[in-house]
Write a structure and sequence with these properties.
alpha+beta, 2 helices, 4 strands, 15% strand
């Protein structure tokens, strides 16, 4: 795996660290070109588009498919997931 990022961002991955080991990880996934594909914020409320509901459903199902994985907290935003 190379750490070359064509978006201009530097990788924050630790060189030589084994990310397959047990630990707590903070994950961010961003949509292509940061388009608001998952929903929109109205006031202080997230209004999901169909794709946003699918993302939330799939994220909640991660432990079903990978029983050794625990999803503590997550948040679906208009153009990314934490």
């Amino acid at each position: 795996m190379n750490n070359i990022d064509t978006t201009g961002r530097c990788s924050i991955r630790l060189k030589g660290y084994d990310y397959s080991q047990v630990g707590g990880y903070f994950v961010t996934i961003v949509t292509f070109q940061r388009e608001s594909q998952f929903g929109e914020i109205t006031g202080e409320e997230m209004r999901f588009k169909a794709m946003g509901r699918i993302v939330e459903e799939c994220w909640r199902a991660i432990p079903v498919h990978f029983p050794i994985t625990d999803v503590d907290m997550f948040m679906v935003m208009p153009n990314h997931v934490h």
